[in-house]
Design brief:
One of its GO terms (biological process) is transmembrane transport. The protein is mostly helical. The chain has 13 helices and no strands. Helix 3 runs antiparallel to helix 11.
Length: 276
C-alpha cells in the first residue's frame, strides 16, 4: 500500500512538472516578453523585463484604428450566434436520436459520425455561400461554425440524454404536453450539465478559430481575434513585444473561462459517458 501511494505521489509530481514544461513555461515566456521593450523582446529569452512596458498593450489596442476591438466584437457575435443555434438544434436532435430506434435513426447516426471524420470542402462551400449571398458575412460564418460543431455537440447531448428516465416523458404525455412542450418544459431543464459543457467547449473552439474566418470571412472589417495575430505577424514581425502582447490579449479571456468552468466540463462529459 505504501509503495502504491509513493508511485501515485511520484506520478502526480511528474505530471505537474510535465504540465509546467508544456504549458506554464511557454505562457510565462510570452507574458514576460510582452512587457519588454522592442530590442529586449527580440532576444527571445525567459527573463524579467528591465523596464515593465505596460504600454505595449495600449499600442496593441490602438493599432490599425483599434482593429482588435472590432475583432473582439466579431468573435463575440460569431460565438454567441453559433452557441445559441448549436444548443437549440443539437439538443433536440440528440433527444430524438436517443429515443428513436429505427433505420432512419441509424442512418442519421452514420451521417453524424461521417461529419466528424470528413474535413470541410473550402472552394465548394465558398461557391455555395456566394450563390446565397452570405459570403463575407457574420451570418455565413456562424452557419459554417454551426455545421462544423454540430456532430460533436449532438453526440454529447445524445450521450447525456440516456441518463434521463423515460418515465418523466410518460408523465408529461399523461399531463397533456405536446412533443415540443415536453422537450422544453421537462427534458431541456435537465440538460444543464451537458449544456454547460457544450457552451464552454464550443465557445473556446469557435472563439479561437483561425482557418474558417480566414477562408469564409476575409477583409479587415471582418477581422476576428485570431486574424489579428495573423495581421500582426506581418506588421510587427520585428517587434516581438507587440506580437506577444496581442497573443496575451486574445488568449487570456478564453483561458479564464476554461479555468473557471473546467469542473463543469468534466462533469458534463463524464455524466454522458457513464449513464448513456
Amino acid at each position: 500500500m505504501k509503495n502504491r501511494k509513493r508511485l501515485c505521489l511520484l506520478g502526480d509530481i511528474v505530471g505537474m512538472l510535465a504540465a509546467g514544461i508544456i504549458f506554464i513555461i511557454p505562457f510565462l515566456f510570452i507574458f514576460l516578453n510582452s512587457l519588454k521593450g522592442r530590442r529586449e523582446a527580440n532576444l527571445l529569452d525567459l527573463s524579467l523585463p528591465s523596464v515593465w512596458e505596460w504600454g505595449n498593450y495600449k499600442a496593441v489596442f490602438e493599432a490599425n484604428n483599434h482593429i482588435i476591438l472590432t475583432a473582439f466584437k466579431n468573435s463575440f457575435l460569431i460565438t454567441l450566434g453559433a452557441i445559441i443555434l448549436l444548443i437549440s438544434f443539437s439538443s433536440m436532435s440528440g433527444y430524438v436520436l436517443q429515443r428513436r430506434k429505427d433505420r432512419l435513426t441509424r442512418a442519421v447516426n452514420v451521417m453524424i459520425m461521417t461529419g466528424l471524420m470528413i474535413p470541410p470542402a473550402i472552394l465548394p462551400t465558398i461557391w455555395i455561400m456566394k450563390g446565397i449571398h452570405i459570403y463575407k458575412t457574420l451570418a455565413g460564418i456562424i452557419l459554417i461554425e454551426v455545421a462544423l460543431q454540430t456532430p460533436f455537440t449532438i453526440m454529447l447531448f445524445r450521450g447525456f440524454m440516456g441518463s434521463i428516465p423515460t418515465e418523466l416523458e410518460e408523465a408529461g404525455v399523461i399531463d397533456g404536453c405536446s412533443p415540443f412542450s415536453l422537450f422544453r418544459q421537462v427534458i431541456f431543464p435537465l440538460l444543464k450539465p451537458v449544456t454547460s459543457t457544450v457552451v464552454i467547449l464550443n465557445s473556446v473552439t469557435i472563439f479561437n478559430d483561425f482557418m474558417n474566418p480566414l477562408y469564409f470571412m476575409p477583409g479587415s472589417k471582418n477581422a476576428t481575434v485570431q486574424l489579428t495575430l495573423y495581421n500582426f505577424m506581418g506588421q510587427y514581425s520585428s517587434s516581438y513585444n507587440l506580437l506577444f502582447a496581442d497573443v496575451m490579449t486574445i488568449t487570456v479571456p478564453m483561458l479564464i473561462l476554461f479555468i473557471i468552468f473546467n469542473k463543469k466540463i468534466v462533469d458534463g462529459m463524464v455524466a454522458g459517458a457513464v449513464k448513456g
